[in-house]
Amino acid sequence: MKNRFNVKQALLTIVAISLIAILYHSCTSNMKPTAALSGDEAQAVYVPPGEYDEFYAFVSGGFSGQVSVYGIPSGRMLKVIPVFSQDAEKGYGYNEETKPMLNTSYGFIPWDDAHHPELSQTNGETDGRWLFINGNNTPRVARLDLTTFETAEIIEIPNSGGNHSSPFTTENTEYVVAGTRFGVPYPQKDVEISSYAENFKGALTFISVAPEDGEMDIAFQVLLPAFDYDLAHSGKGKSHGWTFFTSYNTEQKHTLLEVNASQNDKDYIAAINWKKAEEYMAQGKYKEMPANYAHNIYDESSHIATSTMKKSVKVLLPEECPGLVYFLPTPKSPHGVDVDPTGEYIVGNGKLSADLTVHSFDKMLKAIENKAFETTIEGIPVLRFEDVLAGVVEKPGLGPLHTEFDGKGNAYTTFFISSEVVKWKVGTWEVLDRAPCYYSVGHLMIPGGDSRSPDGKYLIALNKITKDRYLPTGPELTQSAQLYDISGDKMKLLLDFPTIGEPHYAQGIAASKIMPKSKKMYPIEDNNHPYAAKGEKEARVERDGDEVHVYMTMIRSHFAPDNIEGIKVGDKVYFHVTNLEQDWDTPHGFAMMGARNAELLIMPGQTETLLWEPQHEGVLPFYCTDFCSALHQEMQGYVRISPAGSNVPLKWNLGEDEVIQ
Amino acid sequence: MKQLGRLLMIAAALSLLMLFAFPMWKIILYAPQYPDGVEMHIWINKIGGSTPATLQNINILNHYVGMKYIEPDDIPELQYFQYVIMGMIALGLLAAIANRKGLFLTWTILLVVLCLIGLYDFYLWEYDYGHNLSDTAPIKIDGASFQPPLIGKKDILNFVAVSLPHIAGYFVGLSILLGFSAWWFKGKNARNEKTTL
After folding, report:
1. Which CATH architecture has domain A524-660?
2. How far B24 CA sits from the closest chain A CA (Å)?
3. So what's the ipTM on this one?
C-alpha cells in the first residue's frame, strides 16, 4: 500500500510540475508587449498618399554625422541632410565647393558625431528659419538653412573637447551655446594627465547668431572648473538672460570615470547670466586668448563654401566677473537640464538619482540676493540646495535623462534604465502616467517642447536599442523613434519607426512654419559661381598648364559639351557643371568613370565642381545619375584621354557643332 | 447723360491699355508630375509664364516630340502688334473727341476685325508649332499633332492643354462691348434729342 501510494504521489507530482512548466512557459512567451494597441492607432498616423504631414521632425543622425527629416505623424523619412560627414550621394564634402565646410584646425575632418538639433526661436517660439546641430567629436556647431534644407555654416569651438552641451538656443536666437563635455588643458598644452585638476578647464562658449542671415560668431567663452558639462538649456520668459548647464564629474577625475565620477551625491547645474556677460564684455573685462578654429560658410549665390581660420577668442573668468556664474547643487550626475515654458522651473534630470529634482528660478534669484552661499569654487558661489529647490518628483523611475513640456502644465521625462516615459504635473510633482519605451529611451521630443509654446499633441521617444522590435539585420540593428499621442490624459503609443545613426535628440515644428518658405530651385540669373556656364553658348574647355577647366551645362537631356578630346594622363580636370534647369524637382547627376571621389548631384540653377585626375589613356564615359526624363539614359558623353605629352588638340562639341580651340 | 456715349468711347479706347499691363492669353499644360501646371502667358509684345522659366520648361517638353523652340524674337507679330494697338487707342480717343456715332461704330468693328485676324494668326502659329516637327525628334508618333486648342481644352499625349483668354484678353472683350455701347447710347441720345424737339 505504502509503495502504491508513493507511485501515485510521484505521478501527481510530475503532472503538477508539468502543468506549472507549461503555464509558466505560456506566460513568459506572452510577456512581449506587442498587442498593446487598441486599433485606431493606424488611422491616427495614416497620412494618405499625396497629403502632407502636420509636423516636420528633424532627427539627429548621431554618429552618421547627418540630420534626417521626417514627417509626423506618419514617420515617413523625407530627406537626409549631410552636415558633418561627407555624403557621396550628394557630393557634399567631395565636390570642390563644399570641401571647405569640413575644414577644421585639424584639417579636413570628414565625419563627426552629431547630437542635438535645435531650431531657431523668436520670442521663445520656433520660427522655422534655421536648425543648429552640434558635432561632439571635433567640437563644432552647424547651421542649416531651412529654405534649402542644406548646411549653410559650420563653426569650430576652440579650446573645447567633446561639444556635448550644445547648441541650445536663447529665446530670440541671440546665442547658441557650446559647453565642453571633456575638461581639457586651456589652452591646449603638453601636460601630465594626472595634473587634471590644476591644468584642465571647462569652457562654455556662447556663439552669437546674426538676426538677419544667421551668421555665427564666437562672442565669448566662460572658463569654468574642469567638470564635464553635459547638457544645457536657456531660460525663457522671466529667466530669459540665463543659460543652465548640467555637470557631472565634479570630482574632476580623469580615469575610470564610471566609478570615480559617480561619487558625489550632488553635482552642479551652472547658471550663467549671459546678460551680465554682455555687460562685462562691453566693459572690456575679457581676456583675449590664443585659439585656432575654422569658420566655414556656404554662399548660396556662388554655391561655394569658404573656410576662414580665426586665431583668438574672448574669455570671461568667473573670479573677475562677479554675478556671472552660480552653481546649483543637483543630485546626481544630472544629464539633461530643461526649463519649463514659463521659465520658472529648471528640471535637473539626475541620471543616478532616485528622485527628479526641480529648481525654482525665483528662489535662485532670491538666494543670490541673500548671498546665502554654501561655498565658492574657483570664485563661483555655490547656492544651497534647499534654497533653490522647488520640488521633487519622488521615485518616478530609474535613470532620468530628459524632460519636455506640453504647454498644458505637464512634463514628460524619459527614464533610460526603466525604459519609459513618465508624465508628471509641474507644481504638484505628482506622477500622472507612464508609458514603456522599446527600448532604453534617451531624449524625447514634443514639437516646441523646449520652447515657450509647445505643440502638445505628439511626443517622440528616441530609443537607443531595438532588439526584437524589427526584422533582424545581423549584429547591427537600427535605433528607433516612437510616437505617442499625448493629447489626452494618458499617453498612447501610435507608431514606431527606424532612424539613421543614433537619433540622440530631435526637434519638431508645424509644417506651416517651414513649407511656404521652402525653395524650389536656385534662379540661374543669381548664380555667381566663377566657373558657371549660364547657357550652352558659354560651355567650353580651357587648359591652363596641366589644369583643365570644363565649363559644362546640363539640361534635359544632354551635357554641353558631351565629347571632349585633348585631355592627357596627369591632368587635373575640373568639371564645373551647371544645371540649367529652372523647374521644380529637376536635379541632374554627374558621374565620371574612374573619378576617385563621388558623383555630383546638382540642383536646378546650381554649379558644382568635380575634380578628376585621369590615370590611363583611353576613352571614358560620363553620364547623368538622376533619372531626369524619358531621355535620361541618353544623357551621356565621352572624354578621350591621351598619353602625357601627346599633342592631341583640345576640342569639344555637342552634336554637330564642333568647336576646336 | 448727354456725354455718356463719348465717355464710353474713351473707356473703350483706354481698356486696350491693359494689354500692356497683363497677358492677353494663356495656355496651361496639366499633367500629374506638374501639380501646379505649366502656364504660358502670351502678351501683346512678349511670351512669358507664371514663372520666369516657364518658356524654357515648355521648350524642354516640346523638344521630345521635335516641336520648334518657341523663340519670341522669331515671332514678328510680337514686335508690331503693339503699335497697331497704340494706333487703335489713338483712333478711339480721336473718335471720342469727334463724338460721332458713325466713328464709334467704325472703330468697334475695326477692333472686332483685328481680334479675328489676331485669333486666326494665333491659330496659324499654333498649327505651325503643332505640325512642323523635326525629322530628328526623339519621340515620333504617326499622325499625331501637338497643336494646342485655340480656345478650350484638349488632350495632348500625357498633358491636358487648356487655352483661354487672360486678364488683358477680357479687357479687349470689354473694350468691344464698351465701343458698341458708346455707339448705341450716342444713337439713343440723338433719338431722344429728336423726340424732345
Report:
1. Sandwich (2.60)
2. 24
3. 0.88
